[in-house]
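Issue: copy button drops trailing tokens. Both records pasted manually instead:
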Amino acid sequence: MSRVNMEGEAMKMRHLTRRTVLASALAAPAIARAQGDFPNRPIKLVIPWPPGASADAFLRTIADQAGKRLGQTVVPDNKPGANGTFGAIALKDAKPDGYTLAQIHTGVVRAQLMAEQPAYNAQTDFTYIIQLSGSAHGIVVRADSPWQTLEELIAAAKANPGKLNYGTFGPSSVQNMTMVDLQQRLGIELTHVPYRGGSELYQGLLGKQIDIIADASGWIPLVQGGQFRLLVVWGSNRMKLFPEVRTLKEAGIELVVNSPYGICGPKGMEPAIVKKLHDAFKEALYDAATQAVMEKFSMPTLYQDAAAYQADYKELEAVERENLKRVGLLAKPG
């Protein structure tokens, strides 16, 4: 290259460098202003469950409390169906500006691993903000059913393979996956009936369309009201509301299901916005109004910051992959 050409190229590079520096200098205040003004309009929180579910009640309350701290309304947006993955799907296509959030739960990871062509990647498509709580799961039957204990239900299922049926929120829900696991461990066969939401599920049991429900704590009022009987809980400890009901481990089954969940945004969110959201939701989590709802549904406080929440979900993927492989539900590589 001639000296003239070399000098020309050098001049072009200096011009490009100056333009880049100028553009960055102009952009930086705009970004800072956007972060400083956040939020300046309502925030949408996608709840992947129908109104009336226990998780819905909790998320609506914490959204209200977080909104008070952020100075803007956090608007609940119920999108039930698709095994509770519509929140994840909404984040995949949303702008990373902090105005679209969603509950991300263990079923999101599980559904991805079960899909031949998943709609999202839980490790790369979200910004993890805060882990909040988990679900108190259990198995309930009608109060007038013949089964007083878990052992009696298991005996009936062994005597009548495939004749007893149970309801959950879908094939890849944690409730169904746990029931599949239990059937394999216990050598029984039950028939699965998926439902879209809590009210339909509970009406199905009350109307004798199904024999058993495996679900989170939305059944608590019906157990307290005498319509349902709680046979066993899946968590690490007995529920305070029903101290006489054993855990799976106490019933001789080495299985614990806590199902931690939290709130995420789209990938690529600015750290300052993530921190502002995290701080508001953390304060909201410990607010008396939120804790009252959690007490009502026996929900544990499982707070973790963004980094710990993301790290746990990375480990969760490996665990879920092995669980799905064991029960024959892991999607085949494309």
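Record 2 (pasted manually too):
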Amino acid sequence: MVRGKGDRIFDGFVFCFLIAVGITALFPLLYVFSVSLTPFSELLRNGGFVIIPKSITFAAYKELFSMPRIPDAFRVTLFITVVGTIVNMILTILLAYPLSRKKLPGRSFFLLMIVFTMLFSGGIIPSYLTVKYLGLLNSIWAMIIPGAIWSFNVLIVKSFIESLPEELLESASIDGAKELRILMQIIVPLSMPVIMTVSLFYMVGHWNEFFQAILYVTPIKLQPLQIVVRSILMQSNQAFENPEVTLPSATLQMAVVIFASAPMIIVYPFIQKYFTKGMMLGAIKG
């Protein structure tokens, strides 16, 4: 196929546009990272704007890790992310697999109920009362159990399983395999792309846990990392109202942002191939 001058001009325009979008997306992250490594005195001399610092210091990170709340908050967030994601995936797969079977009695009703929860919720007060009466208030499980299943993720996994060849399941059934064996030895291995994709969704949600912690958790030792990050960043606003409040430096604030964001940024490249493949295959067949 011969490409004309118009095609080359269009390709060049698309290339330049993508470069501009990439720079726009990466610039804030580069700025935050640069400021976190810049000496505060240099930052002041440059009016608070530094992209490439002349000298590098880790003083902000040393101060960050010396804060007593950071280790506890990190452990809480790590527990919520790991345990919460495992609970999420177990329940999501156990719900999505039966719903993918067209012979399931009442399948349409169950799907309707799942979609209904995506459109309507009980509200904050009923949810709070439910958590309270279950005895989950001021416990780490209050940030895991209420969001144990996300309806949207169930539908994604269900659609992916439906796209698998039906002949595989039928041949396994003919060989005498029960439903649990079919799920563990056939469905789960073949569904790794969507499992990794949905796991990423759950991981990011748990790592950024904020709203449920505000509602259900009062003890400081049980507060996740995002609550601590917010309190550090909010001190700059409180300093204007109360002169006695210690104002954290801009370098410390940026170091907090990098520390809270880095784990998910590091994890994503390792499961990027699963993420892309899972999203594409999960949308083939509904």
